[in-house]
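Exercise 4. Each item below gives a protein and its sequence. For each, produce the structure-token representation.

Item: FAD-binding domain-containing protein (Gymnopus androsaceus JB14).
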Amino acid sequence: MEDINVLESVNPTLTQMLSKALNLIFHIFSWGSLVVVPGLSESLSSPCRCLYADSSCWPSDADFAALASQLSRPLIYPVPPESACYPLSDPVGNCTDVMLNTSNGTWRSDQAGAMQAINFETFIFQNGSISACYLNTTLGVPCEQGSIPPVGVDATTSDDIQAAVIFAEKWNLKVVVKNTGHDFLGRSSGRGSFMIWTHNMKNISYNATFVVQGGPSNETFNALTIGAGVQWYEAYAVADSYGRSVVGGISPGGSVGAAGGWVLGGGHSALSPQYGLGVDNALQFTLVTSSGSYLTANAYSHSDLFWALRGGGGGTFGVVTSVTYNTHPPTPVIAIVLSVESFDTPATAQSIVSEFLRFHPTMADLGWGGYAFFSAETSFLFVGVAPNISWAAANTTLAPLFEFFANSTSEEAVGYTMSYDSFYTLYEQVLGTPGTASSVGENVEIVSRLISRELLETDYEKVAETLLGLGTSLTYHLVAGGAVSKVDPDSVGLNPAWRNALGHVALGSSWLEGTNATAVRQIEDTLKGYLGVLEELVGPDGGAYFNEASLYEQNFQETFFGAHYARLEAIKDQYDPAGLFVVVEGVGSERWDEDLNCRIQF
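Answer:
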């Protein structure tokens, strides 16, 4: 193994290696977090939503025209982006553009009808038939709308959102709120629904003496306020231009949204062990509730709603229009790449992964965060970052781990560290510019669980054995512990399990376009098996990250929200008494049928 490299400046070759390593991890698993999620509007006269093509209830053209007259932009009519390759479906579409950009997260986020995981563009009927629009036109399948809403509002202001919410409530429509379409639970799409697209709400402002509404004038923050459509590449750049750093999501090109489901579901980051989760850095929200009211929620105004918004999940309490984050002074960042090209024996895999997991609490306590990728049959790769740490401290901390890896395998093992002036410098050089290709544009579903500090400290070898025993590739996020563990678990609505966690493990499956429903169900059964193994490992109260999770949770209330569920449900009933907003496995969703179209509990 190579020694730790103490560099006077950033080595371009090593930066390229770090970029390659991170993009490999992101190719296996996209770090996108739910940004915005679908809501549902309930009419007192019917327990079921009105869906497109139901002429008995769907608004007329005149009704939609009346709505359009209230908006800042024309109504939108989303279509599958792949329809450009089907002249009969989209005569003016540019198929070449679609083919070149199908794995470009930024491009996909700019298309109202595109989801980052394309299986959520499709719809599987109970009889197994599939409504979809495949990029692979040689399959001979006609292009259909699938689960993409046929009409919607391109919101640029809170007034637009208020008009859309009131319209949807009046006509009992099923509502989907979408920003970038980064979503592992299909909450950014809905067959026959009405879309509120927040992607173009791009306002960003910085205030070095920000005071939350209703707060004392002497309580000020260096704060960044961002609109619902802002993506992390935009937020990072503006924060850096003011000499500040902000805790945010990590993805190639930065296409994940910064002011929606990411923070509403908790918001983990490689910087979290140093600065906390997104919810720990959120100072204030503005949002539109189910009544059409525009509210500000913070520690002094609607404090109960502020509590719920910080971890109670997106699409449940209202449509967020902006988030204000506390920012931090930029500090130098040390980055590490540690890899083993392949495991020579299963015993080697067990030894290396066990030692890495044993070492994780030490790294978390020192502020190290990052992402690891491994499987019993292939290799091990860890990319880590630590802000505000010296080279000497990095060397002292990591040398034992590097040495262990070097002495544990006959295969090639590589370890090196790099220094950057700030996290933003690393982000720009390693994760690329907007438009960087990533693992989007694929069919994918995942399962996940949080890994507690206690489990790692008392039984790290069992954790390693269990994860390797799954027999598939997985990612291990080092995004908790440190500053995350120092926050009062009851100060925010987030599942308290996060405050005892150190890691978050996730694995998934993907499949090709055109795969039939029977084969997809078999893949889902395999994922359910993985989920059972993870749940047995961590226990029923182990918890999972709401934004990167499974569609097949048997007790989502405990898994995602823990002991906070009852209070979250009470707050939801206070601000959304008619049940306008409901999402897959979100607070109150057990009151609805499987498709979230009809209410079954009142």
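Check: The mean pLDDT is 91.
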